[in-house]
Amino acid sequence: MTAKSWKKGARLHGFVLRDEQRVEAIDATARLFEHEKTGAKLLQLANRDPNKVFAVSFKTLPQDDTGLTHILEHSVLCGSRKYPVKQPFKEMLKGSLSTYLNALTFSDKTVYPVASRNWRDFLNLVSVYVDAVFFPNIHKTPEIFLQEGWHYALSAPSDPLTISGVVYNEMKGVYSSPDSLLGRTAKTILYPDTPYGFDSGGNPDRIPDLSLAQFLTYHRTHYHPSNSYFYLYGDGELEEVLRLLQEEALVSFGKQVLTHRSLVQPPFSFPVEKTVAYPAASTAGRTMYSASYAVGEATDPLQMLMLTLMAYVLFHSPASPLKQALLDAGVGKVVSGQIDPSMRKPMFSVFVKHAESGALDLFRRVLTDTLRRLAEGGIDPDLLHAGINWLEVTLREPDQGGPAGLTYLFKVMSSWLHGGDPLAHLRHDKTLSALRAHVQKGGGEQWIQKNLLDNHHAAFLTLEPSVTLAEERERQHRQKLARIKDTLSAADIKRLIEQTQRLQARQQAADPAEALACLPLLSLNELPAHPEPIPLEQTAVQGVPVLFTPHDTKGIHYLQLSFDTKAVPEEHFPYIALLAYVLGKMGTKRYTYGQLSNAVHLLTGGLQCKVQTYQQTQSAPKVATVFHVNVKLLSHQWPALPDLLHEILSLTRFTDQGRLLQLIREFKAQRETLLLRSGHQFAVMRLASSLSDKGRCDERLHGIGLHRFLSRLEREFAQRADEIAERLQQTARLIFRRDALTVHRVAAEGEAGEHLPRFLEQWVPTLGMEADAPQVHQQAHRLVNHKQYEAFFGPGRVQYVAKGGGLFTAGGRYEGRWMVLKTLLETEYLWNRIRVRGGAYGAMCSLSRTGALAFVSYRDPNLTETLQVYQEIPAYLRRLNPSQEEWHRLLIGTLRKLDPARSASQKGEVALMRHFSGITEEMVREEWAQVLRTNVNDVRELAPVVEAVLKEGAACVIGGEGKIKAHADLFDRIEPLT
Question: In this protein, which residues make up the domain named Peptidase M16C associated (predicted)?
Fold first, then answer.
C-alpha cells in the first residue's frame, strides 16, 4: 500500500491510521496511528529530512526519590532477548552511523530516541532499542541493577562497606552543583502532592532504598505498549518500521490498563517558603533565592509560547526590568531563571545568586513591586517585540541542539503525554501570529498579573551555604555504612562478598562472539565513500576576504565577522574573553544597554560574540586567536546592520562602571557553574595549556585561568575600574580593524547575495586600520611549560580525573588511526574499566590536531584507581586482539564521529574552523581513508607513544576536598576550585 492511497481507518501491520494532517510550519505530513491489539500510539512526521529520528517514550511517574525511572533508563540498555550482549547501547555507539543515540529521563516520562541518515543503520537502531525496552535482560540478570543503580561493595570481611553504581555516582555529581540543586528543590516544593514532588533522577541519599523487586515490577507495569508513544520523523519508509514494531515487539503483548497518579497539583492557598542547606567552600555572598510559580497548561500552544516570551522579557534579555531591579536593589550579584514547559502545569522560576543571607524579604518585595509596576504601567513594547522576533528565528532553526526531529519530539510529547493534541506545538506559525495579536492587546501585562501577582501557587526557596555540610554528610554516610555492616551476620558478609565477586566477574568477562554476532552491522560497502563535504567559496569584497558556504538555511542568513587578535599584547590577552561577553550588553553612544538589546532582536535574528583559537597543522604550528561576531539575519534586516554593528563594535561605553561590574560578576558566575557541572572539560583544558600554544590560549580565554582572572577583576574593581574600562576600549580598537577582518556567510545558493557587497561598502569604512590602533609592543603568546600534577578541590562528592601529554613530543603524529584508538578506548577500555567497573558516569579520550592527548573521567567516585587505569592503557593496546567483526564495528563508530549531522550554522562554524586551521577538504577525506585502512597492528603500534605521553605528561584533578587532600602527596599543587 503506498502513502497516496492511505485513508483514515487504513490498517498497516496491526496499526490503524486515525488521522492525517499537513503541518506547513515544519513542512511535514503528520499521521497518527493506534495499534489495535495493545493501544500503542504512533505519530509519524513525514518530510524530506534525511536525518531520520525514531523514539519510543513511556509515561514514567516517580513514586519516591530512589531514582527508579532513571536507573531503569540505564538498565534496559544493558542487554536484551534478541541482543544478549552486556552493553548493546555501547556497541551501537561504536558500530553504527547514528547521528543521535541516547536515552533521557524526565520528571514524567522516559524517552529513547535514535537518529541516522543511513536507512539500514536506522532500522538496526530501531530494532535494538525496541528489543531493549520491551525485553531487557534485567529480569534474569540482577547484576545489571547492581551495576547501573546501586550496590553494597565488599571485597573482604575486614574492608569497610561502600556503595557504588553508575546512577548513584552520577547523582552525587548532580547534587554537588548548587545551581542544579536550586532548580530541583524548587520543583519538589512547588508540586508536593504529585509525582513531580519526587526527583526522578534520584537523590543519592535515597537511591539505596530501592529494591530489585520494586525495580522489576515497575518495568513490567510501565514498559508496556499500552503505556507507550512511538515517534517517527524524516524521509524513512513508514511501512517497514511498522512491520518491525509489530513483528519484533507488539505481537507479544495484549492491552493493559495502567492507572497513573494525577500530575495536577491542587493550587496553594498561599505561597510556601523553604530553606535548604547546601555544601559550599565559603558562606559570604553564597546564598541563593528562587521564586517559582506553577503557570499555564502544557497542552496550550499559545500559553507555552507566552511562557517562553515572558521568560525572555523578565530574565533572559539584558533589557529585563525585573532583572535590573533586583540587581539595583542589591539582592544578589546574578539574576537568572528557567522554565520547564514539559510538565503538566509548567514551572516559571526567577533565581538570584551570590546573595547574602537574610535577603529573602528584600527579594520578595523588589520582585512584587517590579512585577506590579510592569502589570499596571505596561511593558516596553520594544522589549516585547524583540522577544517575539527572537522567538520567530528560534522556531525556524530547530536543529541547533541536535536533529530537528528531536526538537519536534520534545514539543510533541509536552502535549501528547498529557492527553493533548500532539501537533499543537508544531503549528508555531499560527501560534506566533496569535501571540503577536495577544501581546498587542496587553497580553504580557495580563500574564504577569494572573500568573505571578495573583497566583498563590508559588514557592520561595532559600539555599544557604554551609562549609561543614559536605564533611558532615560524608561522616554520617561512613557511620551509616559502618552500622549497617555491624548488623550483618557472617553469612550476610559472605553473601555480599560473593555478590561483589559475581558482579566484578560479569563486568570483566568479554561478550561471547555468538552474542556480538547478533547485533546488526553495516557492511563496508554500505558506508559512505567520504564524509559529507562542507564547501567554502573564497572571494574578496572591498579588499576584505569573503567566504561563502551554501546551505539551505530556511531563510536565515548566518554572517560571521572574524577578526584576528594578534595585535593584542600578551598582558591584555584575557580581556579578549571579557570583551566578547560584554559587547552587546553595555550601553553605546546612542543606546542604553536595554535599548541596545531590544534593537539587536528587533533589527536582527540575534548577535553573539565569541573567541576561538586555531592552530595550523603540525608542520606549521601557527596559532591564531580569532574574535567572531556572529549575526543571524532575515533578508529584510540587512539594511539596518551597518549602523548597528558600528554602534556595538566602535561606540560601546565601557565607562559605565556599575554595568561593567554587574557583567563581570555575571560572567564569573556562569563560568563557576560550568566548572562545577563540567569539570572534565576544564581539567583537560588545564592539561592542554602546558602542551601547545593553542592550549595555553584556550586555558586563559575559557578555562580555570579565565575564572581566576574574573575573580581578580571583581575583587579589585573599586581600585581598577577606570583601568579595566580603558583596557577593554583599547582591546576593542586593536581587534576591530579592517585589515584583521574575514567575512563568512552561510545561506542558500543564490539567496540575497547582493546584500553583502552593499553591507560591506557601508560598514567596512567605519572600522579602524592598523595605523589607527594604539601602538603597543606585540608579544608572541609563548608556550610556558608547567607540566605538573594539579588538583582543584570543592565541596563536590565526585571527581574529574585527567591525565595526558603531548603527542608530538612523544614521537607521534596526528593521523586517522589515532581516531580509531580514541573510539576504541571510549567504547571499550575506558568504558569498561572506569564506567562499568569503577562506577563513574563516563570517561573520554581527548585528542586534537595540535597534539594534545588526554584521558579524563566524568563524575568519578575514584581518583588513584582511575590514574592507574590510564597507566595500563599501553599494556591493553599491546595485547589487543579483537575479532574481525569487532574491528569492523570499531571503524564504523569512528567514521560516525568524523561526519556528524550538522545544522546550517554548525556547518558554517566547521568551515571557518577549517579555514583558520589550514584544514582542507583533501585532508578531511584522507583522514577518512586512513580510518578505513587502519588495522589492529596499526593501533598496537601506538602503545609506545601513549606510554611516553603518560610518562612525560601531566595530570589535573577537579573534585571533592576530602578525596584530594587524602592523596595530597600525588600533587605538585593543590588549590580551591573557586
Answer: 463-713
